[in-house]
Specification:
Strand content: 15-25%
Strand order of the largest sheet: 8-7-10-9-11-12-13
Number of helices: 17
Shape: globular
Largest sheet: 7 strands, mixed
Radius of gyration: 23 Å
Distance between the termini: 51 Å
Structural class: alpha/beta
Number of strands: 20
């Protein structure tokens, strides 16, 4: 295997764009692996640790580094040329019709568009805080896709924002929808009267998509970042967003989403939420389910949060979750799953929710990101017993694109699980929307067919359960992705919680 690399001075791109380009390079003929990253010291160390670099390089943080491992030098060089061409197209090289210089700072961008009021920051974490502070001091709200920002800096930025009637969404904020505009990993949903605040990106995606499927829409969806509800940060962004929704005439119902906050932070959020006169649905996944109090209603799952919010908006109060027992029994009639359950998730919150829903039924469950009652998986690269894996966790994405962008990591693991004679059922998610792979079901269907063939050759039966998070308005089209999975023999659920219910019924069928 041959390794080629190239520095490209002055070709800054945000991390989502670089992950997408890395995925496209990996798909080129003869390419085994590829990475396109800003040449910061931290990124160079990462590439060295993952084996994509063979020796240390001096940091050049203003330059892009393209590294390719290929079967031949010629194929590696071809991949470098592909990367250069793709970057040139984005940069507008050779385009003499360009009338304005691309902005190289927040001040330049604001000069070109004085009405702009949000800055999306996707630089390496060591630089993100300084850029966020510049934006805040110019009166701009900030969405920080960047992670690895020190906790003290997050507190400083959010405190400044709160004191100046601004928002800091993030760090590590993967999803927001502001005024109908999807940012980072987000879906195309109908505008409407339900406001969502969430510390989870895929949690926001699930709830907003389900609300859309139920015929209602979103005023705004505000991501807080994964650290906001910690003791250190104190829920500053969630509390600020709650206040904004309380005063927003277009927002009639509010949804708050998170994994369990720190105890004192949860108490503060509930205290402030009770002061709001609008109905509020609270879904703290894995936390105790409290009885409704005043305008507050509590939901144990993301799906139920969406259903309750729609019911509160329309006045047609329904049970928290669609009743589909008869249709599920008809769908699964005569089918069961003998063997262990292996869940392969691209959405971290989906893996978290699945653990909460399945562990009480399955008993001993392992995961790389365990919740309460779930065991830590000793070896990330080998499942044991019932295993639920978050393939978007840092351990799997160091130096590689996120599996929502490049599904190859999940596809490889799926085939590995299929070859394990103890595997009886594989549980999957598929996430659509901006930033995600353009057709994730296509490659997945091929791997499912290969996996079934492996099991059948050994006289085993392998069941698949999955769900698709998205809308028909997304670039990938929800109906088409669901149809592709269904055509491959996957039991396609309506939500992550519904998928967990189908798993329970299939496993229970084998125990009957």
């Amino acid at each position: 295997m041959e390794r080629v690399q190239q520095f490209l001075p002055g070709y800054y791109r945000d991390s989502v764009a670089l992950m997408q380009l890395s995925a496209k390079l990996t798909a080129q003929d003869g390419v085994v692996s590829a990475s396109v990253q800003m040449a910061t010291a931290a990124n160079l160390d990462l590439l060295l640790n993952t084996g994509l670099l063979s020796q240390p390089l001096a940091a050049r943080p203003n330059d892009l580094l393209v590294v390719v491992q290929a079967n031949s030098v010629a194929q590696g060089q071809a991949a470098l040329e592909f990367a250069q061409q793709a970057l040139d197209e984005k940069k507008g090289v050779g385009d003499s019709s360009a009338k304005t210089e691309p902005p190289r700072s927040i001040a330049m961008a604001l000069a070109q568009d004085p009405l702009g009021n949000v800055v999306l920051i996707s630089t390496p974490g060591e630089f993100a805080g300084a850029e966020a502070l510049k934006a805040l001091k110019q009166g701009l709200n900030v969405m920080m896709f960047s992670d690895n920002v020190p906790g003290w800096q997050e507190v400083k930025l959010k405190t400044y924002a709160r004191d100046h009637d601004l928002l800091v969404m993030g760090p590590d904020c993967g999803t927001s929808i502001l005024g109908g505009v999807p940012l980072a990993f987000a879906n195309v949903v109908t505008p409407g009267a339900i406001g969502v605040v969430g510390a989870s990106g895929t949690g926001i995606q699930q709830v907003t998509c389900l609300i859309d499927s139920l015929g209602q829409g979103i005023s705004h969806a505000i991501g807080t970042g994964g650290h906001d509800l910690s003791q250190e940060v104190g829920g500053i962004t969630m509390l600020s967003a709650l206040g904004l929704f309380a005063a927003d005439e277009k927002t009639k119902v509010i949804v708050l989403l998170s994994k369990p906050p720190a105890e004192s932070v949860a108490a503060r959020i509930l205290e402030e939420a009770q002061k709001v006169t609008k109905p509020i649905v609270i879904c703290f996944l894995g936390d105790e389910i409290r009885p409704a109090r005043g305008k507050l209603t509590f939901a144990p799952t993301l799906e139920q949060a969406a259903v309750l919010a729609v019911g509160l908006l329309t006045g047609q109060r329904t049970k928290a979750g669609p009743e589909r027992g008869d249709s599920d029994r008809a769908l699964l009639e005569g089918r069961h799953a003998a063997g262990f359950v292996r869940g392969l998730f691209t959405g971290g919150t989906f893996c978290y929710e699945a653990q909460i829903l399945l562990q009480p039924f399955l008993g001993e469950v392992f995961s790389n990101t365990p919740t309460k009652g779930v065991q830590k998986l000793p070896d990330l690269w080998k499942s044991q017993g019932h295993t639920l894996i978050d393939l978007g966790d840092d351990d799997f994405t160091r130096g590689k694109p996120h599996p929502m962008i490049d599904p190859s990591t999940r596809n490889d693991r799926l085939l590995q699980e299929a070859k394990d004679p103890q595997t009886g059922l594989i549980l999957l998610d598929l996430v659509l929307g901006y930033g995600a792979h353009e057709n994730p079901a296509a490659g997945l269907v091929e791997v499912i067919a290969r996996s079934r063939a492996v099991a059948q050759a050994e006289g085993r039966k392998l069941e698949f359960v999955g769900f698709v998070c998205g809308t028909d308005k997304d670039p990938q089209n929800l109906a088409q992705q669901r149809a592709a999975l269904s055509g491959a023999g996957v039991f396609v659920a309506e939500s992550n919680a519904h998928a967990a219910e189908l798993v329970r019924q299939l496993v229970a069928g084998s125990q009957a």
